[in-house]
C-alpha cells in the first residue's frame, strides 16, 4: 500500500466514522427553530435525538451479518442510500412525529458507516497497524463535536434548519462517491454466511465466546462511556450551576474536545514502545487517579468552574488511549466474522452510552457531582473488568505476538 493509498483509505474511513457524530451534533443548535416551525416543544424534538441513538444501537447488529455475507461495499451502498433519503425526508417533514421516525431510519442507514469502517480496518491493515489506524479514526471523530454544532449553527442562521439535513445528505453523497471510486473492497462476499436468525445468532455467539473480545469490548465500552456522562451533564453543570452563556459553553465544549484530539497522538508515540494492553492498563490507572481527584474536588466544594474544566480535560485525555487500543484488541482475533464483531462492539458502546446518560439524568441534583461520579465509576468498572480478565487477555496477547491467534 502506497503512502497516497494509505492516506485516501484513512480519509474515507474517517469520513464514514463521522456520519453519525455529525448527524447527532450538527442539528442541535436548530432545536428551537425546529420546535417553533413544527409547532411543538423542544422536549418533543429531543426525542428525535433519542430515536437516532436507538437506531444506531439496533442498526449495528443488523449490519454485522450483512457485511459478512455480502462483503463491505454493497451493505454500505444500501445503508448510505437509506441515510440520504431519510435526511431529505427530515428536511421536508411537517410534523415532529415524522421527524422522529425519519431520524430513526436515518440512523439505521448511517450506522452502516460505523460498522463497516471498523471491519475495513481489520480487512485492510495488519494486526500490528490496527491500533494506530483506530487512533486516527478516533481523532477524526473527536474533531466532530468541535465542528458540527458550529457548522450547524451557521447553516441554520443562514438558510434555516431544513438546510442542515440537506447538507448532511450532500456530504454523505460525496462520501458514497469516494467509497465507489477509491475504497478497496476489503473482505469479499461469503455466500456460506446465512442471514437466517439461527445462523446469525450463531455467528454472534462465536464472537461472544471469545475471551479476548469479551474482555476488551467490556473494558473499552464501559471505560469509554465516560464522555456520554459528560455530554449529558455538562450543559446543566456549566450553564446552570456555573452560569456560563451558551457561547461560552460552546468554547468550553470545544476546549474539552481537544483532549480527545491530543490523546490519539500520544497513543501513536506510546505504541512504538508499548503493546496495546499495556497502554490500556496505564490509561485506566491514570484515569482512576484523576477521577478520584475530580469527585473529591466537586464533593468538597473546592473546585470552581476553571478547576473543573481543567480536571475534566485531564480525565478525557485517557479516553483517547483506552478506546483505540481496546477496539484493536477486541477485533484482533477475527477475520471471517469481523463484521459481526464490529457490530457487537459498536452496539454495546452506544447502548452503554445511552444508559450512562440516563443515569446522570436520574441522579441530577443541581450540582456537578452526578456527572463526575458517573465518569469516575465508568473507569472503576472498566479497570475491575480489565484486571479480572487479565489472565485470558494475556494468553491471547501472547498468541498474537507469536502469530498463532485464531483467525475466525
TrEMBL record:
Localization terms from the record: Cell membrane
Gene3D superfamilies: Multidrug resistance protein D (1.20.1720.10)
Bilayer topology: Multi-pass membrane protein
Pfam families xrefs: MFS_1
SUPFAM superfamilies named in the record: MFS general substrate transporter
TM region(s), chain numbering: 45-64, 76-94, 100-121, 133-155, 161-183, 213-231, 251-271, 283-302, 308-331, 343-363, 369-388
UniProt-listed PROSITE patterns: MFS
Cited InterPro entries: Efflux_drug-R_Bcr/CmlA, MFS, MFS_dom, MFS_trans_sf
Residue span, Major facilitator superfamily (MFS) profile domain: 9-394
Keywords for the protein's UniProt record, in alphabetical order: Cell membrane, Membrane, Transmembrane, Transmembrane helix, Transport
Recorded family membership: Belongs to the major facilitator superfamily. Bcr/CmlA family.
Protein name (Swiss-Prot/TrEMBL): Multidrug effflux MFS transporter
Amino acid at each position: 500500500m502506497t503512502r497516497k493509498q494509505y492516506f485516501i483509505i484513512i480519509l474515507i474511513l474517517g469520513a464514514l466514522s463521522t456520519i453519525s457524530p455529525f448527524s447527532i451534533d450538527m442539528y442541535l443548535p436548530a432545536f428551537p427553530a425546529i420546535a417553533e416551525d413544527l409547532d411543538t416543544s423542544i422536549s418533543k424534538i429531543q426525542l428525535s435525538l433519542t430515536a437516532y441513538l436507538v437506531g444506531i444501537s439496533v442498526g449495528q447488529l443488523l449490519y454485522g451479518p450483512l457485511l459478512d455475507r455480502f462483503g463491505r461495499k454493497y451493505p454500505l451502498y444500501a445503508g448510505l442510500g437509506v441515510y440520504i433519503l431519510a435526511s431529505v425526508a427530515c428536511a421536508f417533514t411537517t410534523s415532529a412525529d415524522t421527524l422522529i421516525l425519519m431520524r430513526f431510519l436515518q440512523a439505521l442507514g448511517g450506522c452502516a458507516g460505523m460498522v463497516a469502517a471498523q471491519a475495513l480496518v481489520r480487512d485492510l491493515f495488519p494486526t500490528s497497524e490496527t491500533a494506530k489506524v483506530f487512533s486516527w479514526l478516533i481523532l477524526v471523530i473527536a474533531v466532530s463535536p468541535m465542528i458540527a454544532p458550529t457548522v450547524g449553527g451557521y447553516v441554520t442562521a443562514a438558510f434555516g434548519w431544513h438546510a442542515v439535513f440537506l447538507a448532511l445528505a450532500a456530504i454523505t453523497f460525496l462520501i458514497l462517491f469516494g467509497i465507489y471510486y477509491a475504497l478497496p473492497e476489503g473482505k469479499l462476499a461469503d455466500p456460506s454466511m446465512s442471514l437466517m436468525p439461527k445462523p446469525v445468532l450463531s455467528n454472534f455467539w462465536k464472537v461472544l465466546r471469545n475471551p479476548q473480545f469479551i474482555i476488551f469490548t467490556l473494558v473499552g465500552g464501559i471505560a469509554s462511556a465516560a464522555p456520554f456522562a459528560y455530554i449529558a451533564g455538562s450543559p446543566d453543570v456549566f450553564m446552570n450551576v456555573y452560569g456560563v452563556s451558551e457561547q461560552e459553553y460552546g468554547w468550553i465544549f470545544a476546549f474539552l474536545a481537544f483532549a480527545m484530539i491530543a490523546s490519539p497522538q500520544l497513543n501513536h508515540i506510546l505504541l512504538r514502545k508499548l503493546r496495546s494492553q499495556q497502554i490500556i492498563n496505564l490509561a485506566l490507572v491514570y484515569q482512576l487517579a484523576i477521577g478520584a481527584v475530580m469527585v473529591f474536588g466537586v464533593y468538597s466544594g473546592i473546585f470552581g468552574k476553571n478547576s473543573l474544566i481543567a480536571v475534566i480535560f485531564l480525565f478525557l485525555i485517557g479516553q483517547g488511549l483506552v478506546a483505540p487500543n481496546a477496539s484493536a484488541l477486541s477485533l484482533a482475533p477475527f477475520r471471517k466474522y469481523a463484521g459481526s464483531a464490529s457490530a457487537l462492539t459498536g452496539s454495546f458502546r452506544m447502548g452503554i452510552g445511552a444508559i450512562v446518560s440516563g443515569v446522570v439524568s436520574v441522579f441530577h441534583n443541581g450540582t456537578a457531582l452526578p456527572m463526575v461520579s458517573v465518569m469516575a465509576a465508568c473507569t472503576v468498572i472498566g479497570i475491575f473488568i480489565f484486571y479480572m480478565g487479565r489472565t485470558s487477555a494475556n494468553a491471547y496477547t501472547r498468541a498474537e505476538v507469536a502469530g498463532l491467534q485464531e483467525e475466525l
